[in-house]
Amino acid sequence: SANKTKLVFPRGGLDLAVYFIQCGTADMVKKLASMKLEKMKIRERISQAVITRLLVDEPNKEVARRAFALVALPRHGDVAVTLLATTVDEMWRAAGDTSTDINFYSKRAILSGVYTSTRLVWFQDESDDFSETKAFLDRRIDNVMQIEKGKAKWRELKSKLPDPIAAFTQWRYRR
Question: Which helix H or strand E contains 170, and what residues bound it?
Fold first, then answer.
């Protein structure tokens, strides 16, 4: 029996934690597929994805806490990054993201921070219906939306400014 366990989980507790997290992500994907996400705004889709991932772990919150703590150890950084990348990629896919440019990476990097910090709050949240976690998540998404609005304003402003390279080029060749 111990030999069979070693075959299935050769790295012991780490592989068990990985299995638990992967199963939770797979359950999230199934639950999100059954929802009418396409009728929601993108921020609502992402919020729903994060909350759904947490709700999947709710019946086993202490197991989730221990699994994530084990995976988060520095010596398991490669495993943690892979699990996180897979989870946020599944969230974005469920939300309908089809980007293939730099946005593909930036969306996933930003959501990684939002999801990870929200999960840490959730571990401590003892409020009814995760109200503290949901409020925290809403604030993080608001922060991201403000950044995106700022980037859009910067692009608009930048398009109205003269091109400094062209200005220097003209200056250089004038006599």
Answer: helix 164-172
Please give the model's pTM, rounded to 2 decimal places: 0.81
- Give the separation between CA 4 and CA 103, rounded to whole angstroms: 44
How does DSSP assign 29-89, residue by residue? HHHHHTS-GGGS-HHHHHHHHHHHHHHHHGGGHHHHHHHHHHHTSGGGHHHHHHHHHHHHH
Structure confidence at residue 135 (pLDDT): 96
Tokens (6 digits) for 87? 């989870």
SS3 state at 15: helix
The amino acid occupying position 40 is M
| pLDDT tens-place string over residues 105-117 | 999 999 999 999 9
Backbone torsions φ then ψ of 57, nearest 5 degrees: -85, -10
Rounded to an integer, what distance in angstroms lies between the CA atom of residue 76 and that of residue 70? 8
Cβ 81 vs Cβ 48: under 8 Å? no
Task: Let me know: does 125 contact 94? Beta carbons within 8 Å.
Answer: no
